[in-house]
Predict the structure.
Amino acid sequence: MNQPICRISGQPLTKVLDFGQQPLGNGFLPPEHFISEYFYPMEMGFSEKSMMLQLIEQPAPEKMFHEHYAFYSSTSRFMERHFGEFSHQVMQSKYLAKADPFVVELGCNDGIMLKHFAQASIRHLGIEPSRNVAEVANVNGVRTLSEFFNENVAEQIVREEGQADAFLAANVMCHIPDIQGVVKGIRTLLKPTGVVMFEDPYLGDVIEKTSYDQIYDAHIFIFSLHSVRSIFNIHGLELIDALPQKTHGGSMRYVIAKKGCRNISNRVGRLIKKEIKLKLNKISSCLTFKKNCEISKKNFRAKIFNLKKKGKTICGYAASAKSTTALNYCKIDSKYIDYIVDSTKEKINKFSPGTHIPIVDVNHFRKNYTDIAILCSWNHRKEIQKKEQNFSLKGGRWISHVK
Ligand code: SAH
């Protein structure tokens, strides 16, 4: 079906990866919508100039972020803990002014991080276009503006509330096609001494683990220190620190300030050297990644077909956007998988995007264990396996497409 598609602006790209036609990562749907389901070509290119690996085209953002957005950040206890720690690190840092500091968060979702600032009575503002999750944040006492962030929104915030000491973002900078516009907006919004701290899945981990499922409609950019430094430099901002994170199967927290305003940590130089050694600044690493994706697909398909041949029943655990990429790329559908378990009400009783596997409540799983469960959110492996100990005790086996 013909739907709006948005070509990502920026540097010329060399196409390196092709994951075929993909549906929306979070496009869980009822059967009556199967016929009109939206697909787009999920291809990635590498920019030699900005050293960025990115989608070539993506569906229009309004198709993905709206009042029925299916991802609530606070469903993960692990992420709850992570954002509790992140916010306290910001509060205890040297970056916040002593008098009346102001913290802005991009893509605050249900307020998982900003609620800690709200509880500490620190002036804050969340910017969150998906109205359903923004409403939860507001109900939780997190002041949230339901808008797509851009330069105009930044100017409006400065007019109404002044400049910010800290601009935070997690798993959202990589979502926004007009990255240059966002960076310009951040420059406007930041105090001269202000800092940006944002986290996103890290190219080094994606390539090392062949976790191609980090790529989906919303995840346009897979950042590295090289690409982040290059984009922010254009607008007078510089990378002053970078801290590897365990979240989302391997992320990086980037700390950025206006040029010359803050000292640059030695960690930046060390991590840049490591990236050069791994050739993360070159197209060759992406071409190796491409080969590894193809091998991973072949192996995963063979594993599933074998299990099926042996008469095993299989389910998926956690209907994540990651699983949409993996299942569609590997062409594993309802012929192989009986159901996918999830706890989000927006997904239950619907079907998985593209592969049309029923999504069921976790209680269904607990009453109808399959022989095998695919860890669709392999990055939450520990949390899930602990919660579902009984499955293993009853002889169930976990498998996953990423180690
Ligand atoms: N920070 C949360 C949520 C990540 S999901 C976490 O790490 O768990 C990405 C969020 O960014 C979604 O809630 C989405 O609605 C929001 N988002 C997408 N585009 C945005 C934009 N242009 N400006 C602000 N938020 C945006």
Notes: The first helix runs from residue 61 to 64.
